[in-house]
Amino acid sequence: MERVLSRPNLQAALKRVKQNKGGPGIDGMTVEELPDYLRDEWPVLREQLLAGHYQPQAVQRRAIPKSGGGMRELGIPTVLDRFIQQALLQVLQPAIDPSFSRHSYGFRPGRRAHEAVLAAQSYIQDGRRWVVDVDLEKFFDRVNHDVLMSKLAARIADRRVLGLIRRYLAAGVMAHGMVMERHEGTPQGGPLSPLLANVLLDEVDQALEQRGHAFVRYADDCNVYVRSRRAGERVMRWLEGRYANLRLRINESKSAVAPISGRKFLGYTFWFAPGGVVKRAVAKKPLSEMKARVRQITARNAGRSINQVAEELRRYLVGWREYYRLAQTPGVFGSLDEWLRHRLRALHLKQWKRGRVIYRELRARGVSKDHAAQIAGNARRWWYNSSRLLNRALPIRYFDQLGIPRLAA
């Protein structure tokens, strides 16, 4: 606890909380207000933490949409509790993380989802064409506090730290103006939750490793790669028992023993190129979600300028392209680029609206009189006109100048 409360550690924690921003918890305190509050109250808070008397406040329940439908429940701690959790994390993670399995990739320093995808690809290339695809049912909501604390007690000697973590786990949840007690779960939204999840699940990781299995785990998603359906079914039954020992359940609707070609992992799927070479592709679901988001941004009735649309597209597509840059499907990305430019050309036509404005704008961009007149004469056929006739007026370099990234670059 003394290391947690050291001045350098606290300064680093405060800096990280400021960087992460985020909204207030149930007390309404903002990130900007936290430094002034700490200057006045920290001596008392520090004594409470050292004595083991500090009591965290309840978390604010907040529901956000899941990409696949439904809602995900977050528990947002107060900014003060986020600060204290961050200080705890900065001391605990360097001490605990090195003991985790090398097959675990989620929420770990220096490890990324891309490395997990590449590891999965290597197992498939090695001949493991079946996957035991495991998704844990409402994992963060179902974490058993007693089981988790027993795992932490084996790694942490300071009882004050253990007691503080226990109080964070037991802190209530504020919903609809009322605080409800919590007897299980570690709410997503606090800095400590990912580390606690890895502590709990590491037991299964280590057991899989001891049995010589080829597997990859990212948070509560675990894929074990095997050479036959029969081997996969044996592994699935074994995993059901191991997770049950942790008071966790496998989500049967999302988990399966299946050929790898029918499953996705972290947004990617795998396919076989000529010669049996395994390659990576973006899964259908994230592709459709990306197109839905682009349709929303480029909606022709949104009343925004093309520069505003380009800025929003840039913010979204740069991150999307960076995450899916491992995909070995340049043709798919090239088609997406063409589709996106098609939508933007149609948006231009809609914004120009009247035939005479369209004619004037096209002539100014070097389109012949006949072509400009043809497009202006069918002014409301935005999608049809934009598919072929606008390429010269609004070429690829025009969209490059707007700053819209090329996915196939």
How is this fold's topology laid out?
Elements: H1 7-20, H2 34-51, E1 59-65, E2 71-76, H3 79-96, H4 113-125, E3 130-135, H5 139-142, H6 145-153, H7 159-170, E4 173-175, E5 178-180, H8 193-210, E6 214-218, E7 221-226, H9 229-245, E8 256-259, E9 268-273, E10 277-282, H10 284-297, H11 306-323, H12 330-352, H13 355-364, H14 369-377, H15 382-388, H16 396-402
Parallel strand pairs: 1-4
Antiparallel strand pairs: 1-2, 3-7, 3-8, 4-5, 6-7, 9-10
Order of helices and strands: HHEEHHEHHHEEHEEHEEEHHHHHHH
Total DSSP E strands: 10
Measured by DSSP, the beta-strand proportion falls in: 5-15%
Give the averaged pLDDT, no decimals: 89
Uncertain regions spanning at least 5 consecutive residues? none
Large-scale geometry = globular
Structural class: alpha+beta
**Which radius of gyration do the C-alpha atoms yield?**
26 Å
* Largest pleated sheet: 4 strands, mixed
Number of separate helices: 16
- Helix share of residues? 40-55%
What kind of assembly state do the chains in view correspond to?
Answer: single chain
N- to C-terminal separation?
50 Å
Biggest sheet strand line-up:
2-1-4-5
Question: Any overview of this molecule?
Answer:
- The protein has 409 residues and is an alpha+beta fold.
- It is 52% helix and 13% strand.
- The protein has 16 helices and ten strands.
- The strands form three sheets. Strands 2-1-4-5 form a four-stranded mixed β-sheet, with no helix packed on it. A four-stranded antiparallel β-sheet has the order 6-7-3-8, with helices on both faces.
- The chain is globular.
